[in-house]
Amino acid sequence: MFIIIALGNVGQKYEKTRHNTGWIIVDEIFKNEAWEYNKYFNAEVVEDHHSNLIVKPHTMMNCSGDAVKIALQQYPEATPDNIIVLHDDVDIALGSFKIAYDRGDGNHRGVASITEALGTSAYIRIRIGIGHHGLIPMDKYVLMNMSEDELAILNTIASRIGEALNILVIDGKEKAMNIYNTN
């Protein structure tokens, strides 16, 4: 069983921001699922057809680790190796993604929160590109709304990320990384 954590911020004003890329992607991949708010998790949750738990924390980005701690308490059979985190990444071009394992947080505060909560960086991350042009300060850039064209690009790559999730869950991180990190 895997726990898939999509990072984002709760609230309408954040809905289409670059920092909500994780939520945007899982909303597209699991659009036919019945998401439910779980008060205990303080997150929207759904189980996929593999009985994996997909979680959209409502803790706000910088406290995402709180939701991961609760998920691991609820599912003690899961280990950090069974955690997959989807998040935005300014170091990757829009329309691309990379799968990472046991890497630094890249100054992403949501990822740093999860690493702190787990006590390790040895978990899987799907780093979804949002690009950055350097003209806008980073903290403002990630909280800006994306254009309709940018959102369309994310929706286009969601199916490939869904395929990558299936391979991660069924065949493991090495195979998924070999397939999707070669682009």
From TrEMBL:
Keywords associated with the record: Hydrolase, RNA-binding, tRNA-binding
Highest taxon, organism lineage: Bacteria
GO molecular function: peptidyl-tRNA hydrolase activity; tRNA binding
InterPro entries found in the cross-reference section: Pept_tRNA_hydro, Pept_tRNA_hydro_CS, Pept_tRNA_hydro_sf
EC number: 3.1.1.29
Catalysed reaction equations from the record: an N-acyl-L-alpha-aminoacyl-tRNA + H2O = an N-acyl-L-amino acid + a tRNA + H(+)
Enzyme class: hydrolase
Record SUPFAM superfamilies: Peptidyl-tRNA hydrolase-like
Pfam families: Pept_tRNA_hydro (PF01195)
Signal peptide: none
NCBIfam families assigned to the protein according to its UniProt record, in alphabetical order: pth
Family according to the record: Belongs to the PTH family.
Protein name: Peptidyl-tRNA hydrolase
